[in-house]
Specification:
With 317 residues, this protein is of the alpha/beta class. The protein contains eleven helices and 13 strands.
C-alpha cells in the first residue's frame, strides 16, 4: 500500500486490561476495538465517561501498551521517534508552568519539540496571532482563564507544525464562546491539511465539525462512519401546521396525527410519514379554506443515536 492511501491512525482488534486494587482485580478498558483515521479528516471519538476514550489516546501517544491487538500511527508503532515528530497532543488536563508568560511557554515548547531556533520566534508569533493571544503574550499564565489556558494547550500541540493533532476533551469546561472559538480552530487545521483526532462527550460540537465519528461504549466500538451515514436521512416525525381548521375538520385531521396542539387559529399536527402529510394535504384541499403554513421534519440527532447505544449497553450489563 502506498503512503498516500495509508491511514494516519490504524487500530486493529485492540484490547487493554488493567489490574486494579489490592486484589489486582481485572478491569477491561478496551475490547476488540478497530478503527481507522484518514489523512485530512476531523474524526470525533465519542463515549460516556469511563468508556475507554482516554485509554485509547494514551496507547496512541505511546504512554501505555495494549494487552492485545495493534495500534499504528503513520504506519508505525506510537513510540517510534519518527511518529512523535509528526504529531501534537493536548491532554485533557494539561500542566502549565504558570510563572512563565505565554511567549516564554511557547518558546520552551518549541525548544522541547526541536523547532529550529531560526524559526522559533516566527512560529510563536504566528500561533499567538492564530489563537488571539497577542495581547496576553507577555502576561504570566497564572492569571489566565480556563479558555486562555486551553488556547495555550493547543498552541503547544501545534508549535512543531504537526501533521496529526490529537486532542483529549478539548472543549471541556469552556463556555459557549470558547467552544465556538475552538471549533473554528479545529476547522482551520483541517483547511491547512492537518488531520485532527479528538475525544469528546459534547455531541453538538461533533455534529458541527466532524467528517467521521467513532462511538465507544464500555470499551467497545459500536459504530464508525460518516455522520450522514450513521444518522438516517428519514424523518423520525413531521410537524404540519395548518390554519383555519375547526369543528369536524379539526377532528378528522387530528385522527391522522399522533399528536396535536391548537393555538389560536393554527393547529400543529405531528405525523409519522410522508403518506400522512399527503393525507392532511388532501383533506385541506377537499374542505377548502384551510392552509398549510408549516412543514418541519424532525430527524434523529447524534445525541439520540448515542443515547440509544448507551441505554442498550446498560440493559445488557
Amino acid at each position: 500500500m502506498s503512503s498516500v492511501s495509508e491511514p494516519v491512525i490504524s487500530v486493529t482488534r485492540l484490547s487493554k486490561v488493567y489490574r486494579s486494587g489490592f486484589r489486582m482485580k481485572r478491569v477491561q478498558a478496551l475490547t476488540d476495538l478497530s478503527m481507522e483515521v484518514e489523512k485530512g479528516e476531523i474524526f470525533g471519538f465519542l463515549g460516556p465517561n469511563g468508556a475507554g476514550k482516554t485509554t485509547l489516546l494514551k496507547i496512541l501517544m505511546g504512554l501505555c501498551e495494549p494487552t492485545s491487538g495493534s495500534a499504528l500511527v503513520f504506519g508505525k508503532p506510537p513510540r517510534d521517534a519518527a511518529v512523535k515528530a509528526r504529531l501534537g497532543f493536548l491532554p485533557e488536563s494539561p500542566y502549565f508552568y504558570d510563572h512563565l508568560t505565554a511567549r516564554e511557554f511557547l518558546r520552551l515548547a518549541a525548544q522541547l519539540s526541536a523547532v529550529p531556533k531560526s524559526e522559533t520566534a516566527g512560529r510563536v508569533t504566528g500561533l499567538l496571532r492564530l489563537l488571539r493571544m497577542e495581547r496576553s503574550a507577555d502576561a504570566q499564565m497564572r492569571g489566565f482563564s480556563r479558555g486562555m489556558l486551553q488556547r495555550m494547550g493547543i498552541a503547544q500541540a501545534l508549535v512543531a507544525d504537526p501533521e496529526l493533532v490529537v486532542l483529549d476533551e478539548p472543549m471541556g469546561g469552556l463556555d459557549p464562546v470558547g467552544r465556538k472559538e475552538f471549533r473554528d480552530i479545529i476547522i482551520d487545521l483541517r483547511e491547512r491539511g492537518k488531520t485532527v483526532f479528538f475525544s469528546t462527550h459534547i455531541l453538538s460540537d461533533v455534529e458541527m465539525i466532524c467528517d467521521r465519528v467513532g462511538i465507544v461504549v464500555d470499551g467497545r466500538m459500536v459504530e464508525v462512519g460518516r455522520l450522514n451515514e450513521i444518522l438516517t436521512e428519514t424523518a423520525e416525525s413531521i410537524e404540519v401546521t395548518v390554519r383555519g381548521a375547526t369543528g369536524k375538520t379539526q377532528k378528522i385531521l387530528e385522527r391522522v396525527s399522533q399528536h396535536s396542539i391548537k393555538s389560536g387559529d393554527e393547529l400543529m399536527l405531528t405525523v409519522r410519514s410522508d403518506e400522512d402529510v399527503d393525507k392532511i394535504m388532501a383533506i385541506c384541499r377537499e374542505v377548502g379554506g384551510i392552509r398549510v403554513v408549516g412543514l418541519v421534519p424532525h430527524r434523529k440527532t447524534l445525541e439520540d443515536y448515542f443515547m440509544a447505544h448507551v441505554e442498550r449497553a446498560g440493559r445488557a450489563s
